[in-house]
Each structure stands twice: as C-alpha cells, then as structure tokens.
Amino acid sequence: MKIALIGNQNSGKTTLFNLLTGSNQKIGNWPGVTVEKKSGYIKNTEHELIDLPGIYSLSPYTSEEKVSRNFLLEEKPDLVINIIDATSIERSLYLTTQLMELDTKIVVALNMCDLLEKKGLSIDENLLSKQLGVGVVKISALKKKGIDELINTINKGSLTKKTKQIYEPIVEESLEEIIKTLKTDNKRFIAVKVLEQDEDFTDKSLKTNKIEKLIKKVEDNYDSDVEQIIANQRYNFVVKVKEKCVVQKQKPASVTDKLDKVFLNKWLAIPIFVAIMALVYYLSVGVVGTYTVDLVDSGVTWFSDTVNAWLTNLGASDWAISLLCDGMIAGVGAVLTFVPQLIILFICIVLLETTGYMSRISFFFDRLFRKFGLSGKSLIPFIVGSGCAVPAIMTTRTIEDENEKNATVMLTPFIPCSAKLPIIALFANYFFTNSWIVTVSLYLLSIVIIIISAILLRKFVYKGKSNTFISELPEYKLPSFRYIARDVWEKTWSFMKRAGTVILLCSIAIWVLVSFDWTFTYGVDVEKSILAGIGNALAWIFYPMVGSYNWAVTVSAIQGLVAKEQVISSMAVIAGLAEEVTEGALIFSQTGIFGFFNPVSAYAFMVFNLFSAPCFGAIGAMHREFGSAKKTWFAVLFQTGIAWALACLINGVGSLIMLL
Ligand code: GDP
Ligand code: MG
Asked: 607 C-alpha vs ligand 1 centroid, how far in Å?
C-alpha cells in the first residue's frame, strides 16, 4: 500500500515518520523543486510511507503545496495519514477539510495527545471521526503511544469514508453542478478548485461562461470573492466541529506564559538573546570549538604523515605522494577539522529550535526584518552564518516563501564567518593601530550591505514582500534526545557528503594548478606554476583595488574559494614560506608580501574577501538550496560583483583622501 503522511509544520510529521519507518528511508528532492522528499517502509509491513512537505492548505501558492497536491492527485496514494497537533485542532483541521474532498481514504492521527491533559483539553475522538467521516486515532509520536492502534487501523483497510458537505447550500449546489460535468477522479476536490478559479483547474470542466455564472451567483449572494467565501465556510465548519468534540477545562497559568514574560520582555529579550548567542559561540567557534579543531587537525596531520611514510616506503613517485597528501588529504582534512565545531553548533541550534526559543526570537525581530523585505526567520541563518555559512544556508529551509528564502541564501555568506576572521585579524593588526575599530567597522559594513542588498533583491530579483508569517508561537518544550541526535546526524552527514565531495575535487584542481607549469612539468616553483600564470592573467581585475599588478594577491583570492583560511596560508606559501604557517604579521613583513599593500588597499582587500563568493563548501550548500545552477551562478557573480565594486570604491576614494 502507498501511504502519504501529510500535516502542518511542527505537527510531528518527522517524529512519526522516523518512528514508523525506523532507519530504512530514502531522502531526495521532489522533481523540479528543492523540497525534500523522504520515503520509507513502515516497519514489518509492505506499506510505503511518503512524507509530504509540511503545509497548511492545498492551494497552489507555494512549491510545498504544489508538490503535495500533485502527489495526491497524480500518484493517488491508497491512504493518507493526516497528522494533526491535537493541542491546536482549529488550525490543523483546515487542511483536513481539503483532504476530505479527495477520494482517498484518510486516517487522522491526533498527535501530541500526551499534552492534552496538561492543557486542560479533552477530545472525543469517536465524535470527531463521525463529524469528519474519516478514521481518527489518538497518538503521541514522541512518547510512542497509540502507534500500534494507528498501524492496526491502517492494516484494516476497511476504512469507510463518508462525504461531508461542509459548505452552505448555495455553494454545495454550485459544486453539484460542476461535479455533474466532471469525468475524472476526485470530483469533489476538483469541483471546489474550479469554483475557486484555481489556476491549475480552470479548464477541467464546464464551458467558462457557465462557470462564470455560477461564480457570480455565489459571489453576489455573499458579496465577497469566491475563494474567500469558500475559505470562510471551511473555517466555520472547523469551528463547529471543534465546539462539538473538544472540551476546554480551566487552564492553569502555563509555564510558557511565564517564560515568555522573561524571554519576550521588551528590555530583557535582546540582552538574553545576546547572552545565549555568546554562549553558543563560546562553545562552537570559541574555546571548546578551537580545541576540537586542533584535535582533529593533529589527527589529520598524523594520518597524512603516515600515508606519506607508507607510500615513500613503497617507492611511490613524488607527485603521487604529493597529490594524495598535499592535495586530497589536506583538502578533505580541512573540511573534517570543521566537523566537530559544526556538530556543536548543530546541537546548540537544534536545542534552541526544539525548545521553542528560536521561533520566539524570530518573532521578536520580525517587524524589523520586514522593513527590508525579509522576516524574522532570516535571523537564524544570519546568526549561524557568523560561525559558518554552510550550516547557515541549510537552516534557510525553515523559510516557506521561496523568494524570501532565495534572497536569504544569497545574503547569508555576507556575514563574516569564522574563517574570514583570521584574514581580518591579520591585516587589521598589521596595518592599523586600533585594529578593533577596523574589525567592528567591517561587521557594520556587512550589516549595511546586507540591508541594501535585501531591499534591492526583493525589489528586482526575488520580488515580493515577506509573507512568511509567524502566527502562533509553539509551547516551550523539553527537547528529546533521539530527535536531536537524529537531526544533528542528518545535517552533519549531509555537510560531510556535499562539502566533502566539492572540496575534494577543488583541492585536486588547485593542487594540479600549483604543482605543474604550462608544459605540465611537475614540481615547479610556485611563480612558474599554472596558477601563477592565471594569477598574472587576471591581475588586472585586482588592479583597481590593490593599486598594483600582483599575481600573488590574485592567486590568494582564488584560493580563498576553496576555504577562506587559505587566503592567509596561500599568501605565505607563495611568499616562499612552505614551512608551517602560523599567524604573525612579522613573517609577512619579512617576506615582503605586505609590501604590496598600504592601509587603504589592505582595507579594500579585506572588504573584497569579506563579500566575494564564499568558499566552495558554501557555494555547494547554496546550490543545494537553490536547486539550480543558474541561480547559483547568479549568486556567486552578485556576491563577487558587490565585493569588487566596493573594494575598488574604497581603494579609489581612500587613495584620493590620502593624497589630500
Ligand atoms: P514536523 O515539522 O511536522 O516534521 O514536526 P517534528 O516531527 O519536527 O516535531 C516538531 C516538534 O514537536 C519536535 O520538537 C518534536 O519533538 C515535538 N513532538 C512531536 N510529536 C510529539 C508528541 O507526540 N508529543 C510531544 N509532546 N511533542 C511532540
Ligand atoms: Mg519535519
């Protein structure tokens, strides 16, 4: 049997899906869109379960809604499990009223029943089942209650489904008229869509003029537009059902309300937020993170040395050893060193998410972000982005509106990530006495550029106003260990797989470019390498921002594509320091690489590195979220274009001022 799992966001779909399917799952994308597709077999059965995207309605406005309804209409699952948050039935049943119009059998899984008592709610599921004409089972996906009963209900297969008339007579009559002319399945569903003038169904039935008459009759009767009328009547139906089936007892002052008095307090919200984020950074990119990075780093070095010794013993050629150790192991190792940091960051973020804090702080900043076309939901990627852009770009998935999400994906890399900090620190320390002012100025600049770019992008490219509404705040919850473990594992693995493959390929490419000259002789000096040649050829691009023709600067900027921390090490290597590259402007001044810069051009170069296309890992992540090479190229060019223009402007204006 083919079973679709459908429900609102945060109704517990993922929890139930994981519980029912165990570990045998396939994850991919729905054809043509970047919406995630998960499917798996329900344990010990032949039933395939397909997790549809979290949605509130079956209208055609978002790609999630389109995916879901195309699946229901075209793939015709044998059964739909409609999962509902039992603690907010009113909101959830709206989608159910639309599902009820399909021919498909439905089982409503009333989830989160473990919370009912605490909230003083009681639900009569038999009555609800009668009202809706479908099967209803109470469950708790988290506490694993009622799952056997749910599976039994599914297995019975003898579920009946009664068509319920949920609209007022005049609408029902019009629907009957349309149904008579339809020859397809799902007549009732399609009839409603035809009446609503849904763009996908306008030519499915009667002559247009007859439909127009029906629509006009309904609209005249209620003096409103037909989509609105249908939505209202659905909502009225839901309210009536709720009144019959749900009893609300006295509610004690909830913990959530009390906590909100603190976390959403006008004066306390921001300081608490800053403190929490500071803690997150202390743990992930701060002391603990640095420690884990060093640990993995020494592991990678040990592994590289071992492989080197082993290959040397075997008598392997120089270039083979170098390809493996300097190219592949070093490149992939660079990714691996970030993994522990990322795991800590992922844990912190999923904790903030599942406890309900993240939605609150997004809500708090929502009004502000709306002013430049984004919403509170973009805040999270921006915060995470100051650690690393890769997981940050992955968190944009919580933004439902496609255009708003795309804009956020493009802007996230503008936040100075932890790998860009060493560049800033090194240059700022060497060229400026008050280096902290420089650092702060760069952060402020990035905020200004993000705001300007957001306004421009939302006006000209990813058009629209934010319509990702954060309508209802979830309860504060204690996190579940299994959920966190699984979420962190999925994100980490996805990072390792994607960033790992991209970085591996690019590392090999850069290794080839550094190790060979144009005649393909191995082991040449860096100045004669292909990379230097490319650097020379492209030096004119950097002329306006550095003020001289300089291949080393070009090359280090190109290397920055692999990983931003490469900018520093690459400059050092090129300058003739193949040895251990530690920080220290001294080394750089001795080798003369800093001679290429003056304070103005150094600042311009920092700005360029701050805003230009991020590392390959982040470009890979952008590509995954955009789901299109064209959009990815556009983003990379947009970012690099802004970086270049800004850097040139700064150098130009700065140099002029210096002359005066
Ligand atoms: P999805 O967005 O529909 O995939 O929902 P998730 O499965 O991600 O669940 C959202 C949140 O609700 C998570 O924090 C879950 O731990 C929690 N949750 C899911 N099912 C239950 C339940 O039965 N009871 C309680 N108390 N929490 C649940
Ligand atoms: Mg989910």
From this structure: 43
Contact, 619 vs 502, CB < 8 A? yes
pLDDT surpassing 50 at residue 590 = no
Looking at domain 2-156, its CATH superfamily turns out to be P-loop containing nucleotide triphosphate hydrolases (3.40.50.300)
pTM, rounded to two decimals: 0.56
Q: Which atom of ligand 1 has the smallest separation from the CA of 483?
A: 16
Of residues 405, 416, 400, 415, the one with CA closest to residue 374: 405
| Nearest ligand (C-alpha, residue 82) | 1
Q: Which of 528, 539, 651 is nearest to 601 (CA)?
A: 651
Give pLDDT tens digits for 377-419.
888 888 888 777 888 898 888 787 888 999 999 999 999 887 7
Architecture of domain 169-245: Orthogonal Bundle (1.10)
Please state the atom number of ligand 1 nearest to the C-alpha of residue 7. Answer: 3
Our answer on whether the CB atom of 38 is closer than 6 Å to any ligand 1 atom is: no
Is the C-beta atom of 474 inside 6 A of ligand 1?
Answer: no
| pLDDT at position 450 | 94
Q: Residue with the nearest Cα to atom 1 of ligand 1?
A: 10
Domain ranges of the chain: 2-156, 169-245, 275-659
Task: Give the CA distances from residue 454 to residues 148, 362, 603, 633, in Å, rounded to whole numbers and listed in that order.
Answer: 49, 17, 24, 18
What are the percentages of helix, strand and coil residues in the chain, rounded to 5?
Answer: 65, 5, 30
Cβ(95)–Cβ(13) under 8 Å? no
Backbone angles phi, psi at 3, to 5 degrees: -120, 130
Find the helix or strand (DSSP H, E) in which 83 lies: strand 79-85
Predicted confidence (pLDDT) per residue in 190-211, tens digit? 999 999 888 788 765 556 788 8
Taking a C-beta distance cutoff of 8 angstroms, is the pair 571, 552 a contact?
yes
